[in-house]
Amino acid sequence: MRENTIYTETQYYHCGENCKEESVEADNKSFCCQGCKLVYELLQENNLCSYYDLQASPGKTQAILGDRYAYLDQSSIADKLILFKEGDISHIQFHIPAMHCASCIWLLEHMNRLDAGIISSKTNFIQKELHIIFDHTKTSLRNVVEKLHEIAYPPELNLKELEKGEKKALSKSRIYKIGIAGFVFGNIMLLSFPEYFSSGIYEGDDFHVIFGYLNLLLSLPVFFYSASEFLENALMSFRQKVINIDVPIAIGIVAMFLRSIYEVVSDTGPGYFDSMTGLVFFMLIGRNFQSKTYEWLSFERDYKSYFPIAVTRLKGTEEEVVSVHDIKPNDRLFIRNQEIIPADVLLVSQKAQVDYSFVTGESREVTCQHGERIFAGARLVGKPAEVLVQKDVSHSYITKLWNQSSGKSESKSKYAHLTESISKWFVIVTMSIAVGSLLYWYPTDPSRAMLAFTSVLVIACACALALSAPFTFGNMIRILGKRGIYLKNTKVLEQLSNIDTVVFDKTGTLTSAENYKVEYVGIEPTDLQKQLIASLAHASSHPFSRMLSTHLSSSNNSLPITNLKEINGKGIEGLIQGNLVQLGSRSFIHVAEAQNRNVKSSEVGVSIDGKLLGYFYFKTSYRKSATTLLHSLKNEGYKISVMSGDYSFEQTHLEELLEQKEGIHFEQKPIDKLNSIKEVQSHGKKVMMIGDGLNDAGALMQSDVGLAIAEDINNFTPGSDGIILSKNFGQIGNLLRYAKAGHRIIIISFIISILYNLVGLWFAVQGTLSPIIAAILMPISTSSLVVYTVLASSIKARRLGLTKMKA
Amino acid sequence: MSVILILIAFSLLVAGSFLIGFLWSVKTGQYDDDVSPAVRILFDDEILTYKRTT
């Protein structure tokens, strides 16, 4: 047990992070923190160490657990979360974002060894969900959740989870429809073959009659069940007096079905049952292909996904746990470290540190004094605090921001999609050709007139037209997904091809996660001096001081300061342990040396007891790809704009980077960002916003396409149309180019489909369209178009370098 | 020739039973998660040895 040196891993056993100087040792294995060690020991105790055999270092680093789940003992809250109870048995389903490998599945499915009250647990890896059945007489919901937290798989518990109540019933009906349509299509095709190829061999038999009725019988479920969504949508659009793509499809299906029934009943032909069922089958596949979604990603997040389920309310001297919904103005709340304040409040305690990064996106701790107002969404850091509620949860500043931008969904749906606008013309043209041929033949040959009329409707059905967009966009969305760009749906791709203005958020978007680089030039300070500087910097709220304070944070506690003096725009000074420490501009610290040296980044001088130590330089570190991306977008004619919630000290740097002066906005509140996007849109521009953090959420929703940047796909992202991994930030230009290319591919495939239709119409207007021509033309046109769109979009992706997989 | 009719009826019956099988498998959620079952089958039941090492 003592041979610690044998285990010379450079990575921690549990979480796989690289070892730092300090580590915790146990069983010859090193851990980064007590939390990780605890997980290991817990697993060890319960013989669950296969966890580590399945995958090296499968764990995640651990956070410390307080009594943060105490509210789950509240039956009113627990009942809302539990799916159903039966006797002693409760069922519950959690969303567990941390689930990521085989070890995770193994551990989560062996939960019953950690808690005897758990009867079984089953994962759904695709949805990242865990279904737990437990005996609530032996354990409690709180115990289960705490166990999950202890093994570092904390379930997602937030206000939204509580409100959703019933889990969405997975829409499987389309799969049923495809299955039935495929079954019927295949059978009808086989039953139709003799008719097509026999040409008189079976003359005198009644086979074609029997087969005809059999086909009719088989096609009924397809017409009434599988095709129902096309027919219903077409009816609906008729009522709303708009023509969508379902209208020509529905006309085609109905025309084929009625004509086929007529032919079978009147014994004049075999009908178009095979074409009709095939059409429905292909259409449904197209719809399904298009509706590829990333179920484990959440695009629809709003403030409810961030807010806690419950908070501690103080009643007299007693504490009680209440649901966030039950908070009323003038309630007193007790907020603990790392808890999020769910409503706009006044601080009752003397002092509190809060972090507004949820709201503003800029991670900056703010010190609040007694009586000061704290906005909802702030996270308390450090000592617990007592606060007085001012407004309901639904009336806080941040929720208002959400309601402001909710009007946008309307404007988005108004956008006329390419397919929709073409389908309108398509319906008009085919209907006039059909009526035209009817009128042409009617005087001479009335029966042929009806034949021509229905034939036109049969052959001109918008099959290829309706399939080109789903297959192109569906394929594109898959290719992008492999590359770490996840789009909400195919409509986003269509929107992207119209974008002409790109707005970036600065912090966390153009700059990387660690926003600032602090460089020091001068005499190397001693540890004590470092502590002195850090203490002084800590006392100021100036952004440089904040950065300096976090930069030097290795020295733990700040020392008491006397004679603190802060001169705005100059610097700060104070007496610490008898030393006069000064931080600030050159003039402030009385440096007599030549001052005209041109310094690009901002600097802060340090002097202790009147002696100059050196200078700190602050640089914002932009993402590597940011410069090339900005320039290439500018060259392609996009209007670029940058918005930041930060102070404007980076302005000149950013202007140089962008090579433009206009369109750079600093000190933007979330609502300002939203409004300036509205402003741009009012000039008829189509805006793409790229941001991160909750502070951009309003702007992301308002923009035509909102992309959220995420360092890690499991991290939270604000509600958006797409999520892009930060390492792929440089691909945004390619994304736009790709969307444009997709647009072109669809237009080309429309032209191809029109050519096919012209061939079909040639037969149809003459009334000589036989079912066999329809049966050949329809699959050929469909499959060739599908092949074209998929191939073209894949080749384009390869040319843009989007298919190259990066590890 | 009526033997063809019997064969057709029979083939429809067989095909129909496969269709029902497919619908049933979708309904019972066999396609919901194609990762965990594949992994789950490889988990061994190791022999439990209750020696506490703390």
What is this structure, in a nutshell?
The complex is a heterodimer of chains A (807) and B (54). Chain A is of the alpha+beta class and 807 residues long.
Q: What key phrases describe this protein's structure?
A:
heterodimer, A: 807 residues, alpha+beta, Alpha-Beta Plaits, 6 domains, 7-stranded mixed beta sheet, 6-stranded antiparallel beta sheet, 28 strands, B: 54 residues, mainly alpha, 57% helix, elongated
Instruction: Find the count of extended strands of chain B (DSSP E, 2+ residues).
Output: 0
String of helices and strands of chain B = HH
Number of helices of chain B: 2
Major sheet characteristics of chain A: 7 strands, mixed
Using CB atoms under 8 Å apart, which protein chain pair has the greatest interface? A-B, 30 and 31 residues
Distance between the termini of chain B: 82 Å
- Class per helix and strand makeup of chain A: alpha+beta
Number of domains of chain B: 1
Give the proportion of residues in helices of chain B. Answer: 55-70%
Instruction: Please report which band the strand proportion of chain B falls in: under 5%, 5-15%, 15-25%, 25-35%, 35-45% or over 45%.
Output: under 5%
Multimerization state? heterodimer
Overall residue-averaged pLDDT value of chain A? 77
Low-pLDDT sequence parts of chain A: 1-9, 165-169, 407-415, 594-600
Q: Gyration radius of chain A, to the nearest Å? A: 33 Å
Q: What is the arithmetic mean of pLDDT of chain B? A: 79
Tell me the structural class of chain B: mainly alpha
What are the segments of chain B in which pLDDT stays under 50 over at least 5 consecutive residues? none
Content of β-strand of chain A: 15-25%
Q: Biggest sheet of chain B, in brief?
A: none
- What's the N-to-C terminus distance of chain A? 38 Å
Description:
The complex is a heterodimer of chains A (807) and B (54). By secondary structure, chain A is of the alpha+beta class. Chain A has six domains: 4-54, no CATH class; 70-164, Alpha-Beta Plaits (2-Layer Sandwich); 173-292 and 418-472 and 741-799, no CATH class; 308-341 and 343-395, Calcium-transporting ATPase, cytoplasmic transduction domain A (Distorted Sandwich), CATH 2.70.150.10; 484-512 and 623-736, Rossmann fold, CATH 3.40.50; 513-622, 3-Layer(aba) Sandwich (Calcium-transporting ATPase, cytoplasmic domain N). In chain A, strands 16-28-27-26-17-24-25 form a seven-stranded mixed sheet, sandwiched between helices. Chain A has a six-stranded antiparallel sheet with strand order 8-7-9-15-10-13, with no helix packed on it. Chain A has a six-stranded antiparallel sheet with strand order 18-23-22-21-20-19. Chain A is elongated. Chain A starts with 23 loop residues before the first strand and ends in an 8-residue tail after the last helix. Chain B starts with a helix and ends in a 14-residue tail after the last helix. Chain B has helices spanning 2-27, 36-40. Chain B is an all-alpha fold. Chain B has one domain (2-40).
